[in-house]
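User: Just a sanity check before I run the rest of the batch. Below are the structure tokens for the first item. I only need the designed sequence back.
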């Protein structure tokens, strides 16, 4: 793994990227890893004044191994991040904890340090690396690609989502991230009366006593060459 940080902005934030580069044949994971695996975690060293304000993820793959389904990457991946209250000139020390998997899954931790005294952010290649990583993060909804309605069935067994897809797009692949540790990747698509795509997601086991009121789930929709990510709010 490698940590890149750019120079501080006027508001004291710093943009950066965590590069995770597994060896060939190994995978690493999305923010919700699927049946097994460990989602990436990036935390400042104890006593640090700055915080990790945001970590983003590019579009993952559905990776099947036997009866298990994982969500992640079978190639090097760059995770854009933002540090808040990071205008200091002291070294930045962060701990990155990820899971990597081949025939077995292994937790891997690295303690990474970037020293602002070493002309941080002055390398144009590093700036380009951060900007490229940001471009690979799925954008939010747009007029031609968005969720138009969603509803959880009263028995909590299926989620119904109405989608407006880009013209000519193929059937979508949908990743729904529910409670922490739960991701739903199976579903069926049908065409609605107004040309919209009606997507039904079977919901597996939820935490005991779970209720939907006030919850916010994530949804990532991949349709051909385009992707869109947003949240689903439940009343």
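Assistant: Here's the designed sequence for the first item:
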């Amino acid at each position: 793994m490698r940590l890149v940080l750019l120079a501080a902005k006027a508001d004291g934030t710093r943009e950066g990227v965590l590069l995770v580069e597994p060896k060939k044949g190994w995978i690493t994971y999305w923010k919700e890893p699927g049946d097994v695996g460990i989602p990436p975690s990036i935390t400042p060293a104890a006593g640090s004044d700055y915080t990790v304000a945001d970590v983003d993820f590019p579009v993952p793959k559905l990776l099947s191994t036997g009866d298990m389904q994982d969500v992640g990457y079978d190639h090097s991946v760059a995770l854009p991040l933002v540090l808040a209250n990071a205008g200091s000139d002291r070294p930045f020390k962060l701990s990155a904890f990820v899971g990597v998997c081949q025939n077995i899954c292994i937790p891997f931790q690295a303690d990474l340090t970037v020293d602002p005294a070493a002309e941080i952010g002055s390398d144009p290649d590093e700036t380009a690396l951060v900007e490229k990583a940001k471009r690979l993060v799925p954008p939010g909804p747009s007029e031609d690609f968005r969720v138009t309605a969603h509803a959880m069935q009263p028995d909590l067994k299926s989620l119904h989502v109405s989608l407006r897809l880009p013209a000519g797009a193929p059937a979508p692949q949908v990743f729904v991230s529910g409670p922490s540790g739960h991701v739903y990747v199976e579903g069926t698509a049908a065409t609605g009366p107004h040309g919209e795509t009606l997507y039904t997601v079977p919901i597996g086991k939820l935490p005991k006593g779970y209720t939907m009121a006030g919850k916010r789930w994530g949804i990532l929709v991949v349709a051909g060459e385009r992707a869109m990510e947003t949240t689903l709010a439940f009343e």
